[in-house]
């Protein structure tokens, strides 16, 4: 079922790996100097503190390992030799693949580059490669000094080691050679996550609305919430300027995870047609408990607390995945293996992220892991939308087929009824009526009822329910049993007031206060019901009315029904062709079949009045 999505999801990590390999190959082919050690001093000074003792550190320098409790800032000093900087005619550049959180670069004591704010809230450049131009005017023949000031966060104040302070190796070379390297790395670490996040946000919002409007497809709403939540979390990869300090950002980021977990767990359960009461109660409660625990722990212990919670959340998602796979094994075994591989790929990506909470990973692994999961979510979401579209198309085809069957059945009923009326043979008529009614009730009625209770499409269920009501009305007419006028008026009143109320139109119903002993023939009841329905439908769809009044009366052996609205009335253009639109011809034809008449009075801006007059037959006194 998800085979195309599976193939794309498994292909994406190979694409990222190829891009990273090309990036490394391009760097290897250029004459560049890679600097893998530097003198280091922890000091918050405006320049490199020459008066303090420095120690030599290896690059990359991860603070989570070299100074796990240190908060910086940290100065790094490296030296390089330039033979003829002014005569060479080439601009030198310094490439820093990763610095967390922000950096300033000085050449021979002069500031040449700043990544942004160095004071709280500090600019977040952890995923933004830095390319620094080294002005030729500042490069001296012989020995030159590069001083780099890095501000970052200690390990205890971040949820993941990947966001702790640190700096990668330094690459010194021609600026023109470093530009494509920095461009490719920026595309991988910033451009792709930003594009995927934006797409996830739009797609997730769309799916959430689809699932919210159609509760039978609630798994779409949960997947949409999962996509939107993950898009917000992924924003940390490309957003640089935040209006609040790092402690607040880490708290908000960690607080998002229980909501994302709730969406993921509920999606897996609902997609597998399961509903667990424990999940319905426990997951929302967890969304409140985790932020409270982080507040109690405080910013200085957020790393340990988030590791505990992330472990618990990961176990919950794994349990939901196991339940879903168990359900798939018993119900849709053909798609079990594909879903197993897909969920395994997602689990592998998340496992790498989980390992990154407590261990420093290679840059290639981190980039692939950060991009793989949202890409898989995007592909799966598009596949779910495709499935939903296919289901809608199938439902439309089923609805069209159902309409044809109902129309054919109605045509057969009308044809048989006309034939029976012309024959005037009571015995044959009665027998034929019972046969048709029994066939409709036992065959078409049972099938429509099955569609009502088993269809997963709300539109098909509604259409089948309407067709079932119309069929029951036709069957009632075929039985030939007369209907007491008082009972008929009660049924009509309930239906008309309900329909008008649902359309936002005030309904006023008036009927004689005295008992009505008269009866309507079965045929008169059916045709009058259809005339009344058509009139109300026209008022709801075309009149623009805010009120509709229905009055009934019995006089001179006739039943009179007046339907009046305060709408726009019928325009002069339409007035000349009333019998060809809005069902007027059908209403008048039905009234004529009952030896009655249906008159329409209207004027633009004065509403419409429909007067129906039908002959009655008096019922026998009871007893």
Describe the structure.
This protein is an alpha+beta fold and 623 residues long. The chain folds into three domains: 33-184, Galactose-binding domain-like (Jelly Rolls); 191-392; 482-623, 2-Layer Sandwich (Heat Shock Protein 90). It has 15 helices and 20 strands. It has helices spanning 3-28, 63-66, 175-213, 218-234, 246-271, 277-297, 302-331, 336-355, 363-423, 426-454, 458-478, 485-502, 522-543, 572-575, 584-593; strands at 33-35, 37-42, 55-58, 61-62, 74-82, 92-96, 99-100, 102-107, 110-114, 130-134, 142-151, 166-167, 170-174, 483-484, 506-510, 519-520, 547-555, 558-565, 597-602, 608-615. The strands form five sheets. The chain has a six-stranded antiparallel β-sheet with strand order 3-2-5-11-8-9, with no helix packed on it. The chain has a five-stranded mixed β-sheet with strand order 15-17-18-20-19. Helix 7 (302-331) runs antiparallel to helix 8. The longest helix is centred in the middle third of the chain and has 61 residues, at 363-423. The chain is elongated, with a radius of gyration of 38 Å.
